[in-house]
Amino acid sequence: MWNYEKRLQFPVNIKEPNAKLAQVIISQYGGPDGEMGASMRYLSQRYATPYREVAGLLTDIGTEELAHLEMVAAIVHQLTRNLSMEEIEKSGFAPYYTDHTIGIWPQAAGGIPFNACEFQSKGDVITDLFEDMAAEQKARTTYDNILRLIKEPDVCEPIKFLRQREVVHFQRFGEANREDCRIQVIVYLLSHICIIKAFRQRFDYGPNHRIHLLQGANPYRQNAGIRHTPDAAPIRCRAGAEKGRSCRKAVADFPAPFLKTLSERAFYAI
Amino acid sequence: MNNFSSEQSRMLKDISIIDFTLVELNEYLDTHPYDKQAMEYFNHYARIKNQMAKDFSARYFPLTADMSTDTREWNWVLSPMPWESSFGEGGCK
Predict the structure, then answer these.
(1) Is the pLDDT of residue A165 over 70?
(2) Which of A55-59, A231-235, B28-32 has the lowest mean pLDDT?
(3) Any chain A CB within 8 A of the CB of B83?
(4) Disulfide: which of A16, A173, A204, B47 matches A132 by Cβ 3.0-4.6 Å?
């Protein structure tokens, strides 16, 4: 059973149509690591897990992914409404336009239709949770790639929000794996290594979107766990119109998420 | 595009902020089901959100169909869909 709430999870207000961006972003609607695959993955996997907590988590994250699916569709819709025929021809949007006009249809950036083969429901809770963690990272990478391709702040803001949610969901699936499948040590270490690797590297978002992570405490050097530095330097845009502005503003607008687990602390300590 | 009043936009934005907190706490509690402090936070924000959603629905349009109090016109479908534009403002600030 589901209820619909008549609002987006995060605001989408795009001023200028841009069919080029729409063709890239639609991949997160129906592409290999898109929100449609994400929601169907989690909502389908729920039934086979013997752990209620895991089934609950899959339900809640699968539900949030549906809200993300709506956000991605809203972005694509707002980027393609009010296009002139000239813009459609110039931007390479003609092939999509031929088949769908400006309707929303689940496809990858390269035009490949949505395919359930992009996700698994294996009936084995450990297998599924590892798939889910990998899926969140793949979606995060895709959002990173999209952020390298776009400069428009009104488009990048909701994309950054969606990217951040992938990181949080990765964390939650890691915890579900750790606590409920009793392979605590392995997944604990694995999730730390993944998070540390993911966040220690510099991300190059191109000349106008050069974002990098400032180096902070190295969690490997701490004997007594990860040092909690809640005010660790945030990711900052280094150039262009957004210079100096926190690129986490997309989520910074909201009250701080509930930070308690060591891995989350690691996120802020790095 | 919506022509939301600034008060309407502000209320909708506040609801989204509170609801985001609830989503975060909900998913956190799914993997930490015995964290009493997190449950206190959740209950606190859930009360606030319910009240805000009721206030908004009474003043503008029902956020969920069951919040409708309409008698003359069915605002659940007459009000703008969320993708038309969200809070009447946009982009990075």
Answers:
(1) yes
(2) A231-235
(3) yes
(4) A173
Model pLDDT, residue A195: 55
CB A244 within 8 A of CB A176: no
CB A213 within 8 A of CB A199: yes
A53 touching chain B per CB within 8 A: yes
Contact across the interface for B16 and A172, Cβ inside 8 Å: no
ipTM score? 0.90
Judging contacts by C-beta atoms under 8 Å, the chain A residues touching residue B79 are 6
Q: Give a yes or no: residue B50 inside a domain.
A: yes
Q: A12 lies in a domain?
A: no
Of A147-151, A206-210, B32-36, B84-88, the range with the lowest mean pLDDT is A206-210
Residue A223: domain span: 19-269
Task: Please check whether residue A126 lies inside any domain of the structure.
Answer: yes
**pTM of the entire predicted model:** 0.75
Say how many CB pairs under 8 Å bridge A and B.
117
Q: Say whether A57 and B35 touch across the interface (CB within 8 A).
A: no
Q: Tell me which H or E stretch contains A259.
A: none
Contact criterion met (CB below 8 Å) for A129 and A117: no
Within a domain: residue A7?
Answer: no
Note whether A4 and A86 are within 8 A (CB).
no
Chain A residues in contact with B67 by the CB 8 A cut-off are none
Q: Which whole number is the average pLDDT over A149-171? A: 94
